[in-house]
Batch of 3 targets.
Target 1
Amino acid sequence: MNLRTLFALLVAFALAASLAAQTKISGTLQCGKADPSYSIPVGDRPGHAFVIEKGTCTWTKPVEIVGTQSKVHEMTNFHDVMGERVRSRAAAVGTLASGDKYFLVAQGSSISKEGVALSFEGTWSYTGGTGKLKGIKGKGTYKGTSNPDGTITHEVEGEYILP
């Protein structure tokens, strides 16, 4: 066996090992009205504002990480509102039933009408965690809609890996 073949086999085994260690997740978040919520008009054109808000969500269909279900998800959001188009960035802290926490960032876009998001989608990635989630890495997508009662539903899917 020559060095090139040996190298190719080592790369293949390393790739297979890293792929096997990734765990897929999916779940559903229900979020209430953000509190606090601040909107500051930019002033360059009608309908352009920066909005910052904090909210708490609960998992109606929890994700399971290292055998423990997710419970609470707190998000701090920044929205750049330009009429009906909105671009958003968020940071979140989630808590599992075990008390371990995960941290993530997200970014996405939505279409709104009269200040209500009609639909939205984006991507997220883990930035760290505590306890059994220390060193967590992963990423995924989310999409969702606003509900008539003022709540927001997020469908989340992705994958994670632990060291």
Target 2
Amino acid sequence: MDILEANPRVEYGRFADLERCFGIKRSAAYDLIGRGKIKSAVIKKKGARSGIRVINLESVREFLRSLE
């Protein structure tokens, strides 16, 4: 059971979730994010240099639908 089957209302996921649910690997995801095809956000503490990137899973669904 993947994250979306367990809870279909999940809006954001990490790279592992993206690959498990949609088969999109990290490098392809960064390319799609860079081209504005899918949306993501970085969660970090104020002043931190790094954080956790989460991907908007609905934007991934919309992107895939656009390819049909």
Target 3
Amino acid sequence: MTSESTPHWSARYIGRAYVPRVFDCAALAALVQREVFAREVQVPADRANAPGGRLVAAADQIEAIKAAHTRRVATPEDGDGVLMFCRGRPSHIGVACMVPGEAGSELYVLHALASIGQVVLHRARDLARYGLAVEGFYKWIG
């Protein structure tokens, strides 16, 4: 995960505890945008307690955020949002990380995963192992 001896910016988040209703995938995405990319991204404070169940609520709220604050892109860049299907719904978000390697940069996704209990960095091509599939990539706007 390093280029020469400089670690990728994502390294400082790996291993941070997932805390339901406090520090989840949306909170991580907002934190990274603020600390690394100097963007203010607002996520609903009530996202975990919305009616209709957690996944349905997350999917609905992600759709609202996506429409108001992002634009879809074909090729992600470092820091772009990665919307993922979880249990058939687009209800999980991560941050695109272009991590330098021997064959050039490879796309990874930094995300707070409840089933693992912490922030992890996965190769995008390996997400299916965790029951996730990429819905699309999004550039933050505004």
